[in-house]
Amino acid sequence: MSRLAKSNRDDRLTFDVFETDLGWVALVGSNHGIVKASLSETSPETALDHVQPEVHEADHSPDEYIDYRILITAYCSGAPVDLAEIPIDTRQSTAFFRNAWDACRTIPAGETRSYGWLAEQAGNVRAARGAGQAMARNRLALLVPCHRVVSSTGALHGFDGSGVPLRSRLLAMEANR
Residue 170 contacts by C-beta under 8 Å, 6 or more apart in sequence? Predict the structure, then answer.
């Protein structure tokens, strides 16, 4: 049993995996919101691999994700959708990471902010590297839009297995809405 399941025995985990214009997306959620989300992947199996180990403790329940599926599918097709409407469950994270992820969700689509800005918003102006770690450990891809956080020079860096091309593509898609 994972740390999440042990500490939240009353939370029922559920999941869904669905196809979008950008690829397959998997979500795992609790009663409090989405716990883990994949980026768009080339297959449902790959998307599900990115939401482990939680998906193994979850029941497949696509009906519970209809509204989220509609929003994410619209976003991935280029529609001006605010994915911050989808609740996230970050109770198992540190306060700094939660604050960084919440701040990241306020960055407008198509815009970027620096790791320094994110650190300041998260409560520690000197923790730009910590903000970078929060983005690197972001388990809520698309819902916490870490593709909008860049270095102080504006350079894009790695982004899970998909790298800089996906970050560039998402930013360009958002800017062209």
Answer: 145, 147
